[in-house]
Design brief:
58 residues, alpha+beta, two-stranded antiparallel ribbon
Length: 58
């Protein structure tokens, strides 16, 4: 999604959420704004392992 403008990026993200609702989707992105819109984000940083950014429940 590197060449998409913000409205187009949001439309694609909304479409993915709708199509994959209730299922597991593995999405690889360099844009944090894309991954932040999903309930769980696992980050890999320069060989330092995984950082799990699961959605916190109050």
């Amino acid at each position: 999604m590197n060449s998409l403008d913000e409205p187009s990026e949001q439309a694609v993200t909304a479409g993915l959420r709708k199509i994959w609702r209730g299922q597991t989707l593995l999405l690889i992105s360099h844009r944090r704004s894309v991954s932040d819109s999903f309930s769980r984000r696992i980050e890999i940083r320069k060989g330092h392992g995984l950082i799990d950014h699961s959605e916190e429940t109050p």
